[in-house]
Amino acid sequence: MKQMPNLEDYKKAYREFRWEDIEKELDWLGDGKLNIAYEAVDRHLKTSRKNKAAFVFEGKDGAKETYTFFELAKSSSRFANVLADLGAEKGDRVFVFLDRVPELYISVLGTLKIGAVIGPLFSAFGPDAVKDRLMDSEAKVLITSPRLKNKIEEIFNDLPDLEHIIIVNRDRENIELCDGEVSYEGEMAKAEDDFDIVKTSKEDYAVMHYTSGTTGKPKGVVHAHAAIKGHYATAKYVLDLHEDDIYWCTADPGWVTGTSYGIFGPWSNGVTQVIYEGGFNAKKWYSIIEAYRVTVWYTAPTAIRMLMRFGDKLPEKFDLSSLRHACSVGEPLNPEAVVWGEKVIGIPFHDNWWQTETGCILIANYPVQDIKPGSMGRPFPGISPAILDDGYRELPPGREGHLAIKPGWPSMFRTYWKKEDVYDSRFKNGWYITGDKAKMDEDGYFWFVGRADDVINTAGHLVGPFEVESALIEHPAVAEAGVIGKPDPIVMETIKAFVSLKEGFVPSEELKHEIQRFVKKKLSSAAYPREIEFLDTLPKTRSGKIMRRLLKARELGLPEGDTSTLER
Ligand code: PRX
To answer: How far, in Å, is the centroid of ligand 1 from the Cα of 301?
Structure first.
């Protein structure tokens, strides 16, 4: 049966929303202590949800597994005991580098139960991307699989803080464990399934995701246990999750959407999730909705545009009638995609906006409000965004400026790991500056304009040009590199690199491909330049900084702007 949201209830909830009430809906650990894993899973054991499915999993190979909340609570407690036996403690950083398999979710929850900080890594990352993150966070434990470990083998000597590697061997491969490695299956079999969850305070650090900026390597965005309040409330009111929903979030937990809304938001609402290990495949995706009777779907604009490319006939072959609500995040959702959803899938996509730093959805098109196709929607109750001028003063509706938020919502990031100065620099005049440009209309809907910095958004993945440039110049042929985002109708932006070569190297198609492969292997399949152009020299400021802005203007045929600082 479809559960249609009740408009009056919503309006009332919206008018009367208070974070204090959300706090009462959670089940605190006593003495004001809060632990995300307890809120997401263990507290349901006291209710009729105990034997309800927390998730149904489908593997790439077709394997199927179901975990009830009880089984998930017990397995994650077992894993908490494994970590504790290895000597991991509250505050330690534990990273997980796995495909979307049940052990990933168990590791995340078990880590939170011991009060350690969990850092999920995208399994498409290459050795450099993983090394940067483990090194910066001084991670003590890594959970991975034999295949993924092989991919990053070369980095382990450079990680003195990494004490233990836990190997998840789902396929029971014949492997030999090296020094410092333990078998997930072996340790889990020995461990108790009762664990006294560490009574973390709401300000204790819980989750860490790395995000890209214009300069420097990716920065660790740190969230506290209090973030669960935001995950819970927004999953309830924006994703509109109800007791009987079957919910599917297509994002990987290596990115914030995959944790806030692929783990914490839905489970704190006691909702059953579908977890599909595989990546994008139009037919397979429709068949998942049909097979599991998915009711609420959270996905991304690039995926929607790719589905659109497969045409209007394909979805007709599947029964998608279970769907009652669909949301999208990560990039601008073009109005055509919203309308296409309504026409072809039967429901429109509701765009919403947030960031790794904000921890939860802050601006959204709600199920009961009129969607304005192309707009990100309106602020979540209790959230105060504004559009500011370059002096960080509020602008009236209709004017374009910096999208900023009044600080203070519970899931807001607490710091950039060991980069307090960069964290501080994000606050101006009492506002958190998001790095996005936007405008607000007279009805209070926000419209995305673009990034205020050089960060590239490719298929919803933020890529810092510096990270790609650093990888490029490690190639023996590359002297200098400048990287820009180039508009693309499907993935929003593709990465283009301008490269000058060292003496003795000659531009060729073969060299381009070799450099591409080199970066792809080091970073990830999401972060390598799809296009490389060789230039004799790159435009630089007099102080030697490569002028990406100028490269981009030239590429796009736009005015070059102020070039007075250009090195002549
Ligand atoms: O530029 C905005 C874009 O994605 C950025 C945040 O990326 P990340 O931290 O990786 O988190 C992604 C998932 C929450 C934003 O600063 N962005 C996010 N949502 C939208 C968007 N751009 C346009 N429209 C959106 N709805």
So the answer is: 11
